[in-house]
Specification:
The protein is mainly α and 316 residues long. The chain folds into 3 domains: 2-115, Arc Repressor Mutant, subunit A (Orthogonal Bundle); 128-213, no CATH class; 223-308, no CATH class. It is 55% helix and 5% strand. It contains 11 helices and 5 strands, in the order H-H-E-E-E-H-H-E-E-H-H-H-H-H-H-H. It has helices at residues 2-13, 16-35, 50-56, 62-74, 109-115, 133-147, 151-167, 176-217, 230-233, 243-256, 264-287; strands at 39-40, 43-44, 46-48, 78-82, 88-92. The strands form 2 sheets. A 3-stranded antiparallel beta sheet has the order 3-5-4. Strands 1-2 form a two-stranded antiparallel sheet. Helix 6 packs parallel to helix 8 (176-217). This is DnaT DNA-binding domain-containing protein.
């Protein structure tokens, strides 16, 4: 009996710990059945504390023992409850207490290979991707009601989840409700990460927009405040309008075009382009009273700077 369970179930679940725990639980449940104790709803249960579990399996490290029990619960091999005194209750799910096998019972070649330490593959393997989507539709409907996305969104999440689980070699639990719980937990985590990502993007976007708005507003701080050195750096020869007046027109036009102000280099070069265009328009207007503008040059109107819409005022 011992060799039979250890070998067959170790191969089936690719875990010697699961085989050992199942074997011991069966023995203790059979003992409870003999004494007719811990019978709840026609099911015999094993009552044991956490320290009792550690003492029962001293050859399994405590953390690994608890992880293995959790995996067995996910696979539907056991049922587990915990009362208010933190005492655990276990029963083997849908697996009857076995009677001892004959002494000459032979094990399968796969099982014997596993016992001998050889690498083997389970005889059959269930896949998450083989789960009928009709059973997943109920979970999808709950997720749609909670998060507000359409069904296709969550079915895509299901396919990603199933492919990932299959790639990791993890088989789906025998119970459909456990499969649904695992998927819903995964989908909720995806939605949480998506929400966090959206919030980070919105925060970054808002910060960028705020900085840009501040950079645009910076132009207005230069009204009537042309840097003195610009009188010498900018060529104003032949300019009929005063340089200060043209400067203010340049500042207002740059603000109107919502150009972010980044540095003084941008001020100097943008103003130079503006002044040169202004002077060319003045010359053409003076030389030809009937001049029809071309290539963006128009008569100078001190109240209208739309002629500057298409010229580079950033100076970068």
């Amino acid at each position: 009996m011992l060799q039979h369970f250890y070998s067959e179930e170790a191969v089936r679940y690719n875990s010697m710990e699961i085989a050992v725990i199942l074997q011991k639980f069966r023995e203790l449940l059979h003992y409870n059945q003999t004494l007719n104790q811990h019978l709840i709803n026609n099911t015999y249960w094993l009552k044991i504390t956490e320290q009792g579990l550690v003492d029962l399996f001293p050859f399994i490290e405590k953390g690994k023992l608890l992880r293995t029990l959790y995996r067995m619960k996910e696979l539907g091999l056991i049922l587990q409850k915990q009362d208010q005194s933190n005492t655990y209750w276990f029963t083997v799910n849908d697996i009857p207490v076995e009677t001892p096998a004959p002494a000459n019972h032979s094990v399968s070649p796969q099982a014997q290979a596993f016992v001998n330490g050889q690498q083997v593959e389970p005889a059959s393997k269930r896949l998450w991707s083989d789960v009928n989507q009709e059973f997943i539709a109920e979970s999808v409907a709950k997720l749609v009601a909670k998060h507000g996305y359409d069904q296709n969104h969550f079915f895509e999440i299901w396919h990603t989840f199933a492919s990932s689980m299959d790639a990791n070699g993890e088989q789906p639990p025998a119970r459909m409700d456990l499969i649904q719980k695992r998927f819903i937990a995964y989908a909720n985590k995806v939605q949480m990460n998506l929400a966090h990502g959206n919030r980070r993007y919105q925060q970054t976007y808002n910060q960028t927009a705020e900085k840009r708005e501040q950079a645009v507003e910076a132009w207005l701080g230069y009204i009537d405040k042309m840097p003195p050195e610009f009188v010498y750096k900018v060529d104003s020869n032949g300019l009929q309008a005063s340089l200060d007046f043209v400067w203010n027109c340049f500042i207002r036009k740059s603000y109107e075009k919502q150009i972010p102000l980044k540095n003084s280099y941008q001020l100097e070069n943008g103003f130079s382009v503006f002044v040169n265009t202004w002077r060319q328009n003045e010359v053409k207007d003076q030389q030809k009273q009937n001049y029809k503008p071309r290539s963006g040059y128009q008569k100078v109107d001190h109240n209208d700077t739309s002629w500057a819409d298409d010229i580079d005022l950033e100076g970068l």
